[in-house]
Specification:
By secondary structure, the chain is an alpha+beta fold. The chain contains three helices and nine strands; from the N terminus they run E-H-E-E-E-E-E-E-E-E-H-H. The site of zinc ion (ZN) has 7 residues, from loops.
Length: 165
């Protein structure tokens, strides 16, 4: 299906020049690099990508991502909902263009290479991975007795079990 996010590739500069807007719902099961962090791949994220050129001729993308993935609590391995709200501004750097030194004027923006065939899914996945906590935990685990010790020697064995379902 050509409409699938996995197949969606944009020419960054063209997308910005034409004021492109793309809105998609992305299933968590379409983001394989997230799988190790998730308690379940059910559910989806709302994604909106917008491009424009500013008065100085700089090209920009803004990526908004929202959803509530369920991560694995690092203490009890239960599911812990993580409200995710991301807004990233990306300045597109054309080939040969000088990259901003060190900090951009605006801290909230990053610079990326203006690829002619950027995978929207890979961009979404990168941004989500950056935003997720490294060690998610419940504030208070519901059943501390159901600890990792019940799952054999390694917490990773238990994670592997969870992923099978
Ligand atoms: Zn927990």
């Amino acid at each position: 299906m050509s409409d699938s996010i996995a197949a969606t590739v944009i020419d960054c500069l063209e997308f910005a020049r034409s004021g492109g807007v793309l809105e998609r719902s992305v299933g968590l099961d379409e983001l394989p690099r997230l799988a190790d962090l998730l308690s379940t791949t059910d559910g989806c994220l709302s994604v909106r990508l917008e491009g424009w050129r500013d008065d100085e001729g700089k090209s920009w993308l803004q990526l908004d991502i929202a959803g509530e993935p369920v991560l694995c609590c690092q203490r009890c391995l239960g599911g812990v909902k993580f409200p995710l709200v991301i807004r990233s501004r990306l300045q597109l750097m054309a080939p040969g263009e000088d990259w901003p030194d060190g900090d951009l004027e605006d801290d909230s923006a990053d610079a990326i290479a203006a690829e002619a065939a950027l995978s929207v899914l890979a961009l979404v996945e990168d941004e989500v991975l950056l935003a997720l906590p490294i060690a998610p935990r419940h504030e208070q685990c519901e059943s501390p007795s159901a600890s990792v010790t019940g799952h054999g020697s390694s917490p990773f064995a238990a994670l592997a079990d969870l992923k099978k379902h």
